[in-house]
Specification:
Distance between the termini: 13 Å
Number of strands: 0
Strand content: under 5%
Number of helices: 9
Number of domains: 1
Shape: globular
Structural class: mainly alpha
Largest sheet: none
Order of helices and strands: HHHHHHHHH
Length: 275
């Protein structure tokens, strides 16, 4: 892994850097507080009960069981730490932070907007927002892969946070799309609920492989993606082992997909190091 710490590479801190640092810090506070309040953490309607329960843990066969959503606490903590770190005076001219800080802020605002769409009961709106959010996260993923590390702590915090965020939203996008189709009563589209669930869960596993393979030289980024995707897929499997949507087939495929998601970036990273 290449690491660059030269102050010459960082360049001179400009007034635009300071504006960006302050704006991202304040924006992060607003976005995180707004998302926390909107999700029902301090009272009010929880996401699982909003939009007629379309996004509850038993809404579709690929809805992750409720404990899966605890990952948001880790992601929000990472985003808060990132916002503080990027605002430190010494990091004003960090080229990696220059490249992605605005994108990180956009992702946080989009997440708050997603919560607002669900609370307003528009499942289609939530799908549109989460697809845009995933596009933003994938953009950051590509940018981080192309930029060398500029310092161990800052770079690892950035990579791990974006990785976890990207991995979880990748799984959530598929689950959100399935929730919309179920809410729109489009029918079983030929394959049936089990068949489509297997297709979508398998697609998630293939996506994890793609992330790991493409980013194999940046394990600090792709391994967290695999961890988050594996976490989400595992809870899809656990959710199908009991309750009203019991489905042995989906559970088995989800557990296999979780294993693939966890191992793919590790195997790809180890293979890259041996070359």
């Amino acid at each position: 892994m290449e690491t660059i710490t030269s102050t010459a590479v960082r360049g001179r801190v400009t007034s635009q850097d300071r504006v960006r640092q302050v704006t991202v810090l304040i924006g992060a506070v607003v976005a995180i507080v707004g998302a926390t309040v909107g999700s029902g953490a301090f009272g009010g309607q929880p996401i699982a009960e909003a939009a007629g329960g379309a996004l509850s843990a038993t809404a579709t066969p690929i809805a992750p069981d409720s404990p899966a959503f605890n990952i948001w606490s880790v992601i929000y903590t990472g985003l808060a730490v990132f916002a503080i770190v990027q605002a430190l005076p010494r990091n004003g001219a960090d080229p990696r932070l220059r490249a992605i800080s605005w994108w990180v802020l956009a992702s946080m605002l989009l997440n708050a907007l997603w919560i607002g769409a669900v609370q307003l009961g528009t499942v289609l709106g939530s799908v549109v927002v989460i697809v845009v959010l995933l596009a933003v996260l994938v953009t950051m993923y590509v940018k981080l892969l192309r930029l060398p590390h500029t310092g161990t702590a800052t770079s690892v915090i950035t990579d791990v946070t974006v990785g976890l965020y990207t991995g979880w939203v990748s799984v959530a996008t598929l689950a959100n799309t399935a929730a919309f189709l179920a809410d729109a009563e489009v029918g079983e589209l030929g394959l049936g609920a089990t068949g489509w669930s297997v297709v979508l869960v398998s697609a998630a596993a293939l996506l994890a492989v793609a992330y790991g393979t493409y980013g194999r030289r940046r394990p600090t980024l792709v391994i967290p993606i695999g961890l988050a995707m594996g976490w989400g897929l595992m809870w899809i499997g656990l959710g199908r082992t009991n309750g009203p949507l019991f489905d042995d087939t989906v559970a088995t495929v989800a557990f296999v997909a979780a294993g693939v998601a966890l191992l793919a970036p590790i195997v790809a990273s180890l293979a890259a190091r041996r070359r």
